[in-house]
């Protein structure tokens, strides 16, 4: 346990954090390309068309992983923000703020793919359905965090203010998750479960899990890349940056 605590303490050092992100971001991107490539091939060529929706159902392989990530990233952002506020760890401030644009992108993809999928299924591009409406509010929260962070000149004060908004906004996540249970909804209920039987055909699950895992690898690579860039901006002019080549990997 002490070894783990010591490792996290060392990682909070900006030079060590820079070397860590430089080393692992390319690996995350490479794994993402490999797993997503396999998932896309399976989704397009190995899975048969749905007996009701035809080939239009294949958009779920983008929609579902993006929707899950839109919630996961916001929750992770709030955790990083809470750690930063409680223990004043600068690296966690950086990681929290690096989450925001990535999570916003996942939320936009979720809303766009949901609209494209909803048009043939519901006959409309948009409906003020509880799940859709709460997901849209999530996008506004992401944009609020991003806007607040860039509205304040002092980076640390900006990160703390935006982090507070993220922590408050995390209460929306269970509302999105259970909106199809609590209210009448056009959106289908939960059909894919981590624990317990899923209601979709087993042949459709393998590419979906590949897309979910690949998306997480891509997120990790993007998070490390954005966090490294922000770390370097904050540390600009420091002796360790001048002394150490930026492509050095520990």
List the helices and strands and how they pair.
Elements: H1 2-11, H2 14-46, H3 60-87, H4 90-122, H5 130-151, H6 155-169, H7 172-182, H8 205-234, H9 239-243
Helix pairs in contact: 2-8, 3-4, 3-6, 3-8, 4-5, 4-6, 4-8, 5-6, 5-7
Notes on the protein architecture:
Helices cover 75% and strands 0% of the residues. It has a domain at 58-187. The model has no long low-confidence stretch (mean pLDDT 89). It has helices at residues 2-11, 14-46, 60-87, 90-122, 130-151, 155-169, 172-182, 205-234, 239-243. The chain contains 9 helices and no strands. With 250 residues, it is mainly α. The radius of gyration is 20 Å and the shape is globular.
- How far apart the termini lie comes to 23 Å
Q: Rg to the nearest angstrom?
A: 20 Å
Q: For this entry, what is the oligomeric state of its chains? A: single chain
Helix content: over 70%
What would the keywords be for this entry?
250 residues, mainly alpha, globular, transmembrane helix, Heme exporter protein C, Cyt_c_assembly
Question: How is this structure best summarized?
Answer:
Keywords: Cell inner membrane, Cell membrane, Cytochrome c-type biogenesis, Membrane, Transmembrane, Transmembrane helix, Transport. InterPro entries: Cyt_c_assembly, Cyt_c_biogenesis_CcmC, Cyt_c_biogenesis_CcsA/CcmC. This protein is an all-alpha fold.
